[in-house]
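Example record

One chain of 281 residues, shown exactly as stored in the release files.
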Amino acid sequence: MSKKKIIDDTINYLKYYKEYSNYQVFSDELKILTDDPVFLLREVSIKEKDVIPEESGSEKESILSAGQEDPEVKIIKEKEFISEPVSVSEDWKNCSSLEEFEDLIKNCDKCRLLAGTRKQIVFGTGNPDADVVVVGEAPGADEDSQGKPFVGRAGKLLTDILKAINFTREEVYICNILKCRPPDNRNPEPGEIVNCEPYLFRQLEMIRPKLILAVGAFAAQTLLRSKEPLGKLRGKFHLYNGIKMMVTYHPAALLRNPNWKRPTWEDVQLFRKEYDLLIKN
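Predicted structure tokens for this chain:
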């Protein structure tokens, strides 16, 4: 990896953090940089005391005979864990169908942690020519297991919400900002969103929906390039690349806080009315 690319990636990350900072950076989160630029953005650092000096033949043989791990293997494993992501092929930018698109990125490992812990990517499901696209945050455990978005408790609630405004899951398209499940269902990190959002943007470009329903703050802020809280974004229409977009609460949030069900119902009713107007025109 060239120094220029490392610097460019760092600048892009800092720009993203400035615009979308959803958390405060504390001093104990800061990493001490090494002289090696390849590991500038690594999440795990090797401390001096952990570095094993090169052993002579006899010393190495004694280590192996004692049943300990080969020091060279240990160092290789460490470097594999912290090394830079392997770039996925750029062919997905010119694919002609969503099926081809999914196949081209199914082994993406831009985010090494997510790629190493997922069972499979969760690309999206539904009508590839849908008038409506629902965009969520990230897959959960059920989604990671089945390879489909919104299939757990929150997914059942989303199905009920769509049904209440006369949509079926089969006629809309459903996807997420992230294609991989974050460990322990934590929030997406800024760098993960930066890595994955081009896939979402390309999906929307290929589907060309008439309306977008963004559920949750991460979906709304990513699509709108906004740092406004969800409470200020909901209740009105926004534009994403000329496409009208409504923002509302994530179904998982409704399960935690039933008081948000009423404003969500108001949002989706407005969404349905706008859809009916667009279809008539």
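Notes: Residues 16-85 have pLDDT under 50 and may be disordered.
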